[in-house]
Each structure stands twice: as structure tokens, then as C-alpha cells.
């Protein structure tokens, strides 16, 4: 009920000084007389019973406190129902699954695509500049590169999903420097990182190593440009 309705019930003696009340933000049930905003609503002159009396049928005895069931506390404050959701805070501690692919699986797929790319480029140059080369070779190469790119995007989307982020973050691949940060995050961030914001030991080691290599590469290119 609303506060106004509750005050009206107090004035009508439907709710007594010893009745228990609870609302959101309170840690536990409280007696009406101890809640200032409700104690003020009592109408002077109207007697207030000191305790609630349970109605009983004729010929029966009202149950005593000792006879009341003790399995549950009737004055226990309501609690929120906890539901397991893969994208809730604390999922890192609960070990909830986010789907997608984890770091090791993503790394394995990236290595496999890299090996295929290197082999494909080597075969392309060996055939293109030989007597057997021709127009078909220059047509098949872009098609093969496009297939590898699509596969990588697919794997990256699965990894981002496992981290708990939106797939739109993959557009950072088109932005200089940000693409390097994204690549490090895909290899270092643990499952559900977008929610729990916790890096494990493996992730920290991977991030430090890849970050250092990226920084050295950037400084090397910068030095070469001004040499």
C-alpha cells in the first residue's frame, strides 16, 4: 500500500502500534511505533491494542508462540529472486558461460588462418611467375583472401561474444592504433570481462607481452620513418 493508505489504516486502528511494516530500503521489518513517519499518523484518544490477536473459532484455543511453526519467519523481509544470466555482474566468480570461443580456441584459429595465408601467398607467387601462371591465378587469389577474411571476422565475433561485448567493437579494426588494442583485448581478456572487469593472471601476462611488442613495433616504424 502507499504511505497515505498506510496512515489511513493506522488512524482507523486497522494497523496498530505493534504491527510490523517493511518497505524497500529497510533491512528488516519494524514495529509501526518505531517508524517516525507512521507513529505521527496515530490519532490521539483511540486505544491501540498492544499486540495482534488472532481470530479463533468457538471452543478453540488461540495458538501460542510455542505452537507456531518455526520453519519460516513470517516477518522475514522479502528478498529478490536471483536468476542466473550470462551477462550479469559477478559472472566471473560464478563461472557462467557466455558462449562464443575462449582465448585459447581463438588463438588456435588465428594461427591456423595465418599458416593458411602464408602457404597460399607462397603458392600464388610460385605459380603466378611460372609458365603455368595466368589469369585464373590472379582471380583465385583475391577469392581465397576474402574467404580467409570472412573466417577471421567470424572467429573475432565469437571471441567478442565470449568477452561479453557487442560485435560492433570489431569496427575498431578499421581505426589505426585502436585496431592493435582490439587485437590485444581479443587475446588477453577472459570470458565475461565486459561485465566483471577482472583480468586473470594469464590475461595480464598476455596483455603485457603483446603491449610491449606493439609498442616496440610502433617505435621501430617511427624511427625508420624519420631516419
Q: Which secondary structure elements does this structure contain, and how are they paired or packed?
A:
Blueprint: H1 3-11, E1 20-21, E2 30-31, H2 36-39, H3 91-94, H4 103-128, H5 135-163, H6 178-188, H7 193-196, H8 201-225
Helix pairs in contact: 4-5, 6-8
Any key phrases for this structure?
227 residues, mainly alpha, two-stranded antiparallel sheet, elongated
Strand order of the largest sheet: 1-2
**H-E order:** HEEHHHHHHH
Q: From the alpha carbons, calculate the radius of gyration and give it in angstroms.
A: 34 Å
Low-pLDDT stretches:
46-54, 80-96
Instruction: Determine the structural class based on helices, strands and strand pairing.
Output: mainly alpha
Share of helical residues: 40-55%
Continuous helix count? 8
Mean pLDDT: 76
- Total number of beta strands: 2
> What coarse outline follows from CA principal-axis ratios?
elongated
- Strand percentage lies at under 5%
Reported for the largest beta sheet, the result is: 2 strands, antiparallel
N/C terminus separation: 78 Å
Amino acid at each position: 500500500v502507499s504511505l497515505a493508505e498506510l496512515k489511513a489504516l493506522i488512524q482507523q486502528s486497522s494497523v496498530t502500534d505493534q504491527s510490523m511494516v517493511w518497505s524497500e530500503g529497510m533491512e528488516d521489518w519494524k514495529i509501526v511505533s518505531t517508524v517516525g513517519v507512521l507513529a505521527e499518523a496515530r490519532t490521539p484518544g483511540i486505544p491501540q491494542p498492544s499486540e495482534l490477536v488472532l481470530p479463533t473459532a468457538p471452543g478453540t484455543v488461540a495458538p501460542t508462540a510455542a505452537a507456531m511453526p518455526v520453519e519460516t519467519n513470517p516477518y522475514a523481509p522479502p528478498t529478490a529472486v536471483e536468476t542466473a544470466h550470462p551477462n550479469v555482474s559477478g559472472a566471473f566468480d560464478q563461472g557462467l558461460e557466455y558462449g562464443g570461443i575462449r582465448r585459447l580456441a581463438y588463438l588456435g584459429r588465428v594461427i591456423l588462418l595465418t599458416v593458411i595465408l602464408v602457404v597460399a601467398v607462397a603458392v600464388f607467387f610460385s605459380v603466378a611467375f611460372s609458365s603455368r601462371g595466368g589469369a585464373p591465378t590472379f582471380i583465385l587469389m583475391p577469392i581465397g583472401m576474402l574467404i580467409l577474411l570472412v573466417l577471421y571476422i567470424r572467429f573475432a565475433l565469437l571471441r567478442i561474444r565470449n568477452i561479453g561485448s557487442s560485435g560492433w567493437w570489431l569496427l575498431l579494426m578499421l581505426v589505426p592504433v585502436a585496431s592493435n588494442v582490439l587485437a590485444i583485448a581479443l587475446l588477453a581478456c577472459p570470458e565475461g570481462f565486459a561485465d566483471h572487469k577482472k583480468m586473470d593472471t594469464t590475461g595480464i601476462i598476455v596483455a603485457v607481452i603483446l603491449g610491449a611488442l606493439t609498442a616496440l613495433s610502433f617505435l621501430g616504424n617511427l624511427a625508420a620513418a624519420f631516419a
